[in-house]
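Entry 14: structure prediction run for Peptidase M20 dimerisation domain-containing protein. Input pasted below.
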Amino acid sequence: MENKYTLDDISKRLKVSTRTLLREIKRGKLKSQRVGRRHLVSEVEIESYLGKGRDEDYLEKTISMFLKDVKVEMISTLQKMVSRPSVASEVGQEAKLANLIKHKFDKWGIRSNVYEEGSEVAVRASYGLADDGILLDSPLDTLPPGDLVKWTYPPFDGVIRKGKMYGRGTADCKAGIVAMMYTILFFRKFFDEEKLRIEVVFDGGEQDGSFAGMKLVLKRGLPVTAGIVGYAGDMKDILVGARGYHRYCFTIHGEAVHTGSRYKPGINAISKMTKFINEVESYEFPKPLGSLFSFGGRLTFSKIEGGRAINMVPDSCSAWLDVRTTPEISKDRLDEDLAKIIDKIKVRDKNFKIDVQYMVGQQAYMVNPKGKIVELIGQSCQVVLNRKMYLTASGPAHVGNLLNESNIPTVVFGPMGENVHSYDEYIEISSIPKVVEIYIRTIIKYFDIDSNSF
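Run finished. Output tokens:
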């Protein structure tokens, strides 16, 4: 007599909920025999449902079944994360989120650690024993919500309206975190550790450009050969590079006197700073060599401070400069060009005294557009989204710049969302399972594994 199994038996065997199995029975995809209030399913029907012996069908059904099973849970997890603010400027908030995530990994039986040094924090999870792995990364920290009155919905409630979840950090980058968490869970459930290695890192220090959390991880060793960063976007392109950024503080020194002095004019540091800013803003960036960086470089004086009283000639003025560079211009070249501008002014003005402080920065980068990680994630996007993806570069720098310097070619692709760093930030909820599937397919192809590895 042929063995028959209850839904509880099948649920344990396939690692899905009985709710998902009942849904599949209702849709006619899984055939069962009703005995009283119980559903019994034969081995033949189980194998027919899974498509055993047909690797592609088996894999397709496994992915589909997993995504259906965790869909509601992913939304709930994202809401919980949004309700836990992780504002970069608020001490301790990133660490609380990191520990919340670690608790989830512990519950799933996935190895994880939280690294903390002072205010620097990162949470890392690993699955797989291969020598070389693939990295999934998203930042923990967010910007402050700003003026709460300008939000349609409270920024830390995770309100859902018309398929969108609103809140600070939904798009940057907690939806990416959720997608990556459930990607590693899929492999924990269905794949043998011997065949692959996935390193998941969620790190602080992204918003201020220090990438301090990722640096904590890198100094401990990160055995990966490629990476994916989960920033939200429009899901129409894959970012394969990013402009660099370099930040400076310039301080000009003058001579303070009373503004009403009859004989001493003083040296107005603010006036001299104005002339310096005009000179710097006339700087011409080199023309980008490729189409990926067609938007070119940019420099912005974003903050200025000077003067102590309305009736005193200011003897000091400081200005902060943010420079965005394409791969054609290195930091050394930028330093040289700024020095030439300063020397030119000094020739004309013997009273021009300026201090230059380099604050922080990363070089621009671009990975090989025909590299393995680029081609594989592009193929996976085409399968899931049914369209060809465009390759482009990011205007803002990100942690990929640092990873590239560590010889980890990194691309950016994440869920669909908008209003990053603005009011009414949101994520399209339906995009999260699609991104999980794209990550899953990319990793399977990256390690060249099939359903026999289940």
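Notes: The two ends are 28 Å apart (CA to CA). Will compare against the previous run tomorrow.
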